Structure prediction request, 806 residues.
Amino acid sequence: MDLFAQERDRLLRTTTRFLGIACTVLSAVSLSFPGVATARIGPVPQLAVILPFAALMVVFLIMVGRSVRILWVVLGLAAGLAAGAAALLPDGFDGNGPLATAVIPFVGGGVASFALVLHSSRRRVALAAVAAVLVLAEVVLGTREVLSVQLAAVLLGWVLVFVAGFWIGNSVPRAARRIYSIGNAHRAERQASETEAQRRQGARLLHDTVLATLTLLAHSGVGVTSDALRAQAAEDARLLRHLRLGSTPQPQASGDYNLDTVEESPLGQTLESVKQRFGRMGLEVSWHGTGQVLLPTNVLDAFLLALAECLENVRRHAGVTEAHVTIIHDETMVRAMVTDAGVGFDLTGISEERLGFKESVVNRLREVGGGARLFSAPGAGTTVVLEAPR
Amino acid sequence: MSIDENTLGVPRHRRAARGLPTSSTGARSLRQAQAAGATLGTGYLGMGAAAVAAVQAVYGLIFFLVHLSSYPVAAPAIIAWLVYLAAFIGVVALVAIQGERLTGTVMIALSAALAVVVVLDFVAIWPLHNVGTYATASVSVGFGLLPLVTLRPAREVILATVVLFLLFVAAIVLTTPLTARTFPGQIAALGLACLPPSIAVYAVQRFRHMVQIELDRVLVQSNVTQPRFAVGMLASDELARLDLAAEKLLDGVATGEVPLPLEPQVASTAASLATELRLHLIEGRRETWLYHAVTESEYLGRAVKLADPSSLAGLLTPEQRDGLLQAVWLLLGDRRTRAAGTSVTLTLGPIGTSIQSMAGRSVEVPIDITSTGIRRNRVTPATWNALQRMGDYSTSTHQGSLRLAIRCIVENPADA
Prediction:
């Protein structure tokens, strides 16, 4: 609100400047027409007094546009009143003539423009009232009539400018209230969106099986029986539906995917689900070694994703239906060795990037402080060693 | 079930320019605020403009009735006033019934009516050979444009004002001999007719601009309370969309509606879906609130460059974040019309060692703010206050532009 109030004041001040300068220019043009301002103040032609004061007021208007200080408003009003007096009060002025008309835009618009910024406190309103009364007094004295067309026009100008300033000033808090209610709604929405995104991103294992199935579908499901693929798709669709409806999926048929936010998860149970999934797709996975290793959730996720990625590579490229996974662990690390007796390949011939190895396996493990190494030769099968910290 | 091709691979809806999902409240509010003739907060302004116009109309009408005896033929002027009042009341009634909007057709009809008013008024005062002194309804037309400023795009009102100005100039030149007695009256009438709509257009444009900036600021402000890393407003929307598309596809496969083996087209859809899903699961993890704030904001996004390789912004407390955001905002926003070259570069880190950090409880995050096109003496006190809330700072000047070094003390993340 603080900033917004400043902006409002700036809007009013620059509008003051615009209005004040435009009206002053109008009057200056009128007054400069030959024969309009004919009186003299002492030895000096009155125009030579009016114009400098008007110019001074323009300077103060510019300062009002830049600065919040009330001083410039007071000085501007003083300069404007002085210019008005120089126009209307000299002797030998015939009253209701063109000069009074020429000065109307100046005193009824230019000087009045300061009223735009004079509504926010009682002192300011009082200042505006005093200035208005002085201006009207000048006009009454100048035209020598209590009710003249000129007086009515000047009064109208002051009233309109004051109303406009008051109204603009009051529009701002209204707009601000709406803006802040939008802001509150937005903050709530952001929090909800954040929670939702975290929930969805947190369901990493679910997404991993979905991704695996989608990848299979991307290969038109070649190499997997239709029934197996349908069963897998049905299962994944069911889990996604649960996720969408807001519950945390608890898979049943695919083993224990542990998607709860527990700190540590046993490796053995989740390995079983990976095995089942590849079993459906026609790759028999044999497990050797440790069954129960507790890993932090993020490490477990990365480890399993990397492992599944390696098995997927075996399934797609090795040309065999069996793979072996050996899990060993010590105090600090858990290692998995994925071996197959397939076609193998020349490590120099095929870049790691081409297998998606670097992105999906190496980087994933590096994120959690582990790593991966790949050994293979044509005809001699492939071995991948995955490492992750416990 | 059929595969909705549009939902897969190709983004279904256009993303809002500033990175908000198009369906979000924020994006909706922004669209509303940016639309031509937007109504956020301007409705009340429009009422004020109508009040001003009404006051002037009463004044003009009284003036007209007082001078009625001078008119050789008063009928056209009377008709002009009746048409003007009818148009004015019509617009007010329409807005009261329909809400704050005015269709193009109505605007054209209204402009035609106002043109008729001006012409009839001029016809009536033609024999008097002094347009400036006797013009009444035609001057009020200028004020009549005021309420339209909040209802229609600025260019239409400007066009109408220009036409009004030209009509006045033409009438004055054709009818009125310019002498010292008549000249000031002509200028006064011209100013009275054309200045109000011009100033109203200026003020309302500024007002809209102001509301937009404030809205942007308020929306970005919601980043302050975010956790250290956040995915941003877009991620969840997109992820939900991808999940739904995958669910539909898998469901189709499961129920047999999508035959196996898949057609090449569907297969490639599945591939692109998998790729997008993978990207979305990776992205957004290492992005801080500050990154989101800068990318989501139209005003910061254009002028702020952020270098935060270690994601240190996430360590700042909400108070410090608020201070940083406000300081940057004020540095950039201080200039009403921001110069093209004005920009700010924020560099966070590397974490330094200081006495406080030796104790291990807290670390010092140095923030370096380099600016171009911001002179030190133009920085407002509010900016210094905002900087104070972040920590100790020192200022220097580099190539005529402000440079700030702030030392933010934050809790050590290793302790937390």
About this structure: Residues 1-14+227-298 of chain B form one domain. Chain B touches chain A through 93 residues (CB under 8 Å). Strands of chain B lie at 304-307, 343-348, 362-372, 392-398, 401-411. The mean pLDDT of chain B is 80.
